[in-house]
Amino acid sequence: MRLFVTGGAGFIGSHYVRTLLSGGFPGYEHADVTVLDKLTYAGNRANLPADHPRLRFVAGDVCDRALLLDLLPGHDAVVHFAAESHVDRSLADASPFVRTNVGGTQTLLDACVASRVQRVVHISTDEVYGSIAEGAWTEEWPLLPNSPYAASKAAADLVARSYWRSHRLDVSITRCSNNYGPYQHPEKLIPRFVTRLLRGRPVPLYGDGGNVREWLHVADHCRAVHLVLTRGRAGEIYNVGQGNERTNRQMTDALVRLCGADPGLVRTVPDRKGHDLRYALDDTKIREELGYAPAVPFERGLAEVVDWYRENTGWWESARDAAESAVRLTPAGV
Ligand code: NAD
Ligand code: DAU
What we know:
Layout: E1 2-6, H1 11-21, E2 32-37, E3 55-59, H2 65-71, E4 77-80, H3 87-92, H4 95-114, E5 119-125, H5 148-167, E6 171-176, E7 178-180, H6 189-197, E8 203-206, E9 212-217, H7 218-231, E10 237-240, E11 244-247, H8 248-259, E12 266-269, H9 284-290, H10 298-311, H11 313-326
Helix pairs in contact: 1-7, 4-5, 6-8
The structure holds nicotinamide-adenine-dinucleotide and 2'deoxy-thymidine-5'-diphospho-alpha-D-glucose.
């Protein structure tokens, strides 16, 4: 078995690859893995083993058709994580989002057809549905993305589905809720707040802190991705969640407590443009059809993740500085 993983040096993709290489997916203990990752600001080669007999790492772009046609033949399946993933950056400059998330997905799928790859899983997001005040989205919900990031992911989903309908490419799509876990870039809420609180620095809570997100440990997301890869049906979409809804204020209070920080470090700042109020998924389909059951209890998972950032300062210090200076993600005075 040969797997091709795009974006495998990022947060979720690297968790998937590390799990695969450490034998965490039964039946895949001998699988060979090719990782293709552009190593943007979000990718880190150190998220993967430096040297592993079953890992081949290629620094390259999913928009590079010639490279894909060179690399893909002989692979049995592709798991496509690579994307520009941060909403705030898409508000500052949407062009890399459209290029990579839409153009990169189309180029990859085209190369999969040409290379006769048998199976593809496209990693999408719950943000394609927009924002939901009450209830939860099923997979049949209309797409109504609000940020340029979410719009680029929604476009990619439609491109993926079209490759199934038109070319009979065996592709399934996952739409997951907000992930948390180790190795997440410190531009995102949880690592950003934890790495600041641990240093006694203020944290910027957008708006009134009443926006709601549904949180899932990255290990559970990766288990779901692998289930879809091995048992998911072609052309189908699978929502992935756990039902752990928290307002950002509740999440911030929990992080302040877990970091042993001063609650006075929390600063409310002007809201994100077009800030989605609430995300909530109905993931009955993947539970009933594929037997998905998240395994990491939220309170324990969150505490362990805070401990991980406390113990791995070397990992996040350089990424943090680069992130905050690059696009002025931190408001003045925070
Ligand atoms: P990330 O930003 O941590 O990692 C993205 C990776 O893709 C990086 O390693 C980056 O170098 C690579 N990349 C970017 N552009 C590339 C290109 N043109 N060619 C090759 N590689 C490129 O993102 P993440 O949080 O790990 O998200 C992974 C996937 O999961 C994305 O598709 C995202 O939309 C989706 N997702 C994320 C979450 C979440 O909460 N983080 C939730 C649901 C879905
Ligand atoms: O729902 C899945 C999505 O979750 C993924 O598709 C995205 O790739 C991922 O980045 C994430 O998007 P969010 O915008 O929900 O995540 P983020 O961590 O940026 O923000 C979470 C919430 O916290 C959101 O309501 C905005 C708020 N926030 C975020 C940051 C970075 C703050 O209040 N302050 C901050 O500094």
